[in-house]
Structures are given as structure tokens and as C-alpha cells.
Specification:
The protein is of the alpha/beta class. Helix content is about 45%, strand content about 20%. Helix 3 packs across helix 4.
């Protein structure tokens, strides 16, 4: 009898683990409010919005963020746009990671990066915050640098002392034209991360 109960218990635990492994949390970083809409710092929001549009789902306001979800290749994808503002992004990420029981390796943070030229996408499984306050807070709240992130290059066409104005500035007309191709490409990268994992996705997209 104990053997049978033990097998049932182990099977249930295995099913829960497998179910957890099939969940993914894609987090787009940004700042809430009309003031920050369509700014370079909000590119994470833009990628999540495109993924939601592409899969015909809508965001709902929940605790610490807006959330949407859909299925892709048998995997449950949860989209999150934190409403904590950029510098406190980690609070929202930690809350939803724990609530949804998503393994840290199944979390993907989509973030702007001024160290990369516009159009460059770079997926990393871990790394330093490189001065980005959103990543800095996530590292603090998760107590690790080992979480996947998709860096979306926004360029660095600004003069000394104008970095804040640049990242919080609106996209220029010529940049918006490029984004029409770049945002769908970034969303494809997110789906590839879910479908085939970070390593093979990096081989494909980081060139």
C-alpha cells in the first residue's frame, strides 16, 4: 500500500514540475502613463503589446502590473507589463514569478539597451545590469544575475549629459519606420525562446 501511495505521490510531484516547466513569463520593462508612451525606455512594453496583439489577447490590470496570457506550442505564456515604474521592476517580477510558479530560467526580461545600435537584438541567459535601473532592481529582488534577458538596442545618439533625455525621449519618425520590422522580430525571438530554449535561440538571433 505504501508503495502505491508513494508512486502516486511521486507521479503527482512530477506532473506539477512538468506543468511548471511549461510556463513562461515574458516581462516587458517600461514606465506607465501617457507621459512615457512611445519612448525608447518603453520598448519592452511595445514588444509585449505586439505579442498580445498577434495572439488576440488583451491585458488586464492586476496586482503590480498588466497581465495577458496565451498558448504557444503547448506552452503557457504569461505577458507582464509592471506598473511599478522602471526603477522598481523587480517587485513586480518577483511577485508574478512566485504567483505563477514560473522557474527563473523560464523568465524573459525585454529591456532597452543604449549600448547596442538600433536594430540589434541580443539574448543573454545572465549578466550584469550594465547601469540599467530596471535590471538592477530585478537583480536585487531575485538575488541573482542569472535570469534571461532580451536586450533591444536603442542606440546612443545623444550628447554628454543627455542620456536621461534620450532614453525617455520619443522615437523619431525614421526610427518608428524601423521599429515596424524590429518589434515583430523581437516578438519572434521571444517565441523562439519559449519553443526551443535560450541556447538555440541565441545561435539563431544573436548573429
Amino acid at each position: 500500500m505504501r508503495t502505491i501511495l508513494s508512486r502516486i505521490f511521486n507521479w503527482n510531484n512530477k506532473q506539477k514540475a512538468e506543468s511548471s516547466d511549461m510556463k513562461y513569463l515574458i516581462v516587458g520593462l517600461g514606465n506607465i502613463g501617457d507621459k512615457y508612451a512611445q519612448t525608447r525606455h518603453n520598448i519592452g512594453f511595445e514588444v509585449c503589446d505586439f505579442l498580445a496583439y498577434k495572439h488576440d489577447v488583451s491585458f488586464k490590470m492586476e496586482n503590480l502590473g498588466e497581465v495577458a496570457n496565451f498558448k504557444h506550442k503547448g506552452r503557457g505564456i504569461h505577458l507582464l507589463k509592471p506598473n511599478t515604474y522602471m526603477n522598481l521592476s523587480g517587485k513586480s517580477v518577483r511577485y508574478w514569478m512566485n504567483k505563477l510558479k514560473v522557474p527563473i530560467e523560464n523568465i524573459l526580461i525585454v529591456v532597452d539597451d543604449l549600448h547596442l545600435p538600433l536594430g540589434k537584438l541580443r539574448l543573454r541567459e545572465k549578466g550584469k545590469d550594465a547601469g540599467h535601473n530596471g535590471l538592477k532592481d530585478i537583480e536585487k529582488m531575485l538575488n541573482t544575475q542569472k535570469y534571461p534577458r532580451l536586450k533591444f538596442g536603442i542606440g546612443n545618439d545623444f550628447k554628454t549629459g543627455q542620456q536621461v533625455d534620450f532614453v525617455l525621449g520619443k522615437w523619431e519618425k525614421k526610427e518608428i519606420q524601423e521599429l515596424q520590422e524590429l518589434i515583430p522580430k523581437a516578438s519572434d525571438l521571444c517565441l523562439s525562446f519559449v519553443a526551443i530554449g535560450a541556447k538555440y535561440t541565441m545561435d539563431q538571433f544573436n548573429k
